[in-house]
Design a protein that fits this description.
By secondary structure, this protein is of the alpha+beta class. It has 4 domains: 87 residues, 3-Layer(aba) Sandwich (Rossmann fold); 65 residues, Dna Ligase, domain 1 (2-Layer Sandwich), CATH 3.30.1490.20; 133 residues, ATP-grasp fold, B domain (D-amino Acid Aminotransferase, Chain A, domain 1); 77 residues, ATP-grasp fold, B domain (D-amino Acid Aminotransferase, Chain A, domain 1, 2-Layer Sandwich). Helices cover 28% and strands 30% of the residues. A hairpin with an 8-residue loop joins strand 6 and strand 7. Helix 2 crosses helix 3 and helix 3 runs antiparallel to helix 4. Bound molecules: adenosine-5'-diphosphate and magnesium ion. The site of adenosine-5'-diphosphate has 20 residues, from strand 6, strand 11, strand 12 and strand 13.
Length: 400
C-alpha cells in the first residue's frame, strides 16, 4: 500500500484526503491542531505545523512515505519542496517552491525573465523613508505581504496619506521583514489552472473569476470556459509558460492569477499547487475526471493521463461548462439556521455548508471567511451561471 503525507486538514484538503482514501492509499495528514474537518478522514494524523520542515521531514522519514502533497494552500508548499528534495520524492523543488511562495522572489523572477507583471519595489519594514522609494510608481498602488494568501495583507492604496495604515496591515499579515509595493492594474481579473509534469505542460485551463470588491479584490467564485480571443489566449499561454519555466516549477499543479489590461495578460502570481475556491472541482468537472486523483498520482510518481475523461486531448476538449461561488456572511455573528431548498438536480454539483448552526462566523472580508460553496454545471456557460444564481437564491443562511 502506498503512503501519502497530506499537509493541511482544512476544507481545501478534504477532497484530496477523500480521494486518496478512495484510491486505496494510506493517508497521513499533518496539520496544526484545530477544528479541521480533514482529521477524522485520515488513516493517521500528526498535529504539527506544516511549515515546520524538521518535524514534517521526521514524519516523512518515520512513515517512509511515497509522496507529499497539498491542495488549495500555499502555506505548506515550501515544506513540500524541501521534503521532496531531501528524500528524492516526486514533486516541485525547494527552489521553485521558494519562488512560488514569496511574492518578491516571484516578481523579481518575472522581471528578469520577461514575464509581464505590475511594476514593483521591495520595501523593508525598517525603512522609515520608504515613500521616496515608491515615488515613481503610479497610483493606485498595492501594498502586499510577500508570504500570505487569500488576500490577507493585500491593501489598495490611493494616496500617500494611506501609506502607514496600509503598511501596518501588511505587517500584521507577514512573517517577512520586507514587503512589495506594486502598481494596481486596472482590468479584468481571471486565472488559469494548469499542470506541469516531466517538464511538460499537460494542460492550461483559463477560467473566469468572480471578485468580491472589498478593500481589495478577493476571488469568491470561478467559471469555465473563459472566452479569450485567439491572440489573447496565445498571450496568456505565453506568459504562463514563460513564468513556469522561469520559476522552475515542475511535477506540480499550477494556480495562476492574471489581470487582462488593454488585451495584454499581466501575471499577478503563480502558485505550485491547485487553486482553492472550488478550482480543483472546476478542472474535474470541465475535463470529466477527478483532478485530485491526477495530483495524487503525480505526487506518488505514478503514470498519469491528462486527457479528458472521454479520451480527448486536453487542448482539444470542449469541456463541461461550470461555475462556483462561495457562501458568505454579511455580518459577524452566530449561524442560527441554514437551509438548502434546492431540488435534487444533476446540474447542481455541490452545495456545501462549512459550519453548523451555533457556530460563529465572520463578516466576509478575505477568502478564509467563507462559510460554504455552491458548484453548478450546464450545457452552456450561460446555463451553468443561471443555475448558479438559482441555486444561490434557494439557500438561506441566517447569521445573528
Ligand atoms: N497589481 C494589482 N492590480 C490589481 N489588483 C491586484 C493587484 N495585486 C493584487 N490584486 C488584487 O488582490 C487580490 C489578491 O492579490 P494576490 O497577489 O493574488 O494575493 P493572494 O496571495 O492573497 O491571492 C487579487 O486577486 C486581485 O484582486
Ligand atoms: Mg491570488
Amino acid at each position: 500500500m502506498k503512503k501519502v503525507l497530506i499537509l493541511g486538514a482544512g476544507i481545501y484538503q478534504v477532497p484530496l484526503i477523500q480521494t486518496a482514501k478512495k484510491m486505496g492509499i494510506y493517508t497521513i495528514v499533518a496539520s496544526i491542531p484545530g477544528n479541521y474537518p480533514g482529521f477524522e478522514l485520515a488513516d493517521k494524523v500528526y498535529f504539527e505545523n506544516t511549515t515546520d520542515y524538521g518535524k514534517i521531514l521526521a514524519i516523512a522519514r518515520r512513515e517512509k512515505i511515497d509522496g507529499i502533497i497539498t491542495t488549495g494552500t500555499d502555506v505548506a508548499v515550501i515544506t513540500i519542496g524541501r521534503v521532496c528534495d531531501t528524500l528524492g520524492l516526486p514533486g516541485l523543488s525547494f527552489q521553485a517552491a521558494s519562488i512560488a511562495t514569496d511574492k518578491l522572489k516571484m516578481k523579481t523572477c518575472y522581471e528578469e525573465n520577461g514575464v509581464r507583471t505590475a511594476r514593483f519595489r521591495r520595501i523593508s519594514f525598517d525603512d522609515e523613508d520608504y515613500a521616496r522609494q515608491i515615488s515613481d510608481l503610479a497610483f493606485p498602488l498595492m501594498f502586499k505581504s510577500v508570504d500570505s494568501s487569500g488576500s490577507r495583507g493585500i491593501v489598495k492604496v490611493n494616496s500617500p496619506a494611506e501609506f502607514d495604515d496600509a503598511r501596518n496591515v501588511v505587517l500584521e499579515n507577514t512573517r517577512s521583514n520586507y514587503f512589495v509595493v506594486e502598481e494596481f492594474i486596472e482590468g479584468e481579473e481571471f486565472g488559469a489552472q494548469a499542470f506541469v509534469r516531466g517538464g511538460e505542460i499537460q494542460f492550461i485551463l483559463p477560467h473566469g473569476d468572480y471578485i468580491f470588491k472589498g478593500d481589495t479584490g478577493v476571488p469568491v467564485g470561478h467559471f469555465a470556459p473563459y472566452a479569450l480571443s485567439p491572440e489573447r489566449l496565445e498571450d496568456t499561454k505565453e506568459q504562463l509558460q514563460r513564468a513556469i519555466r522561469a520559476m522552475g516549477l515542475d511535477n506540480c499543479a499550477i494556480n495562476a492569477d492574471f489581470i487582462m489590461k488593454d488585451g495584454k495578460t499581466y501575471v499577478l502570481e503563480i502558485g505550485g499547487r491547485s487553486g482553492a475556491t472550488c478550482l480543483a472541482e472546476l478542472v474535474s468537472i470541465y475535463y470529466g475526471y477527478n483532478y485530485y486523483e491526477k495530483i495524487l498520482k503525480t505526487a506518488l510518481g505514478e503514470p498519469v493521463d491528462f486527457r479528458a475523461g472521454d479520451g480527448t486531448p486536453a487542448d482539444r476538449c470542449a469541456g463541461t461548462p461550470n461555475a462556483s461561488m462561495l457562501l458568505m456572511s454579511d455580518r459577524d455573528g452566530v449561524i442560527r439556521a441554514q437551509e438548502n431548498n434546492n431540488p435534487e438536480d444533476p446540474d447542481i454539483v455541490d452545495v456545501q455548508f462549512d459550519y453548523q448552526p451555533g457556530d460563529t462566523v465572520r463578516k466576509f472580508h478575505v477568502g478564509p471567511h467563507r462559510i460554504g460553496h455552491v458548484i453548478t454545471r450546464g450545457a452552456t456557460l450561460d446555463e451553468a451561471v443561471e443555475k448558479l444564481h438559482q441555486a444561490l437564491d434557494n439557500i438561506r443562511i441566517t447569521v445573528e
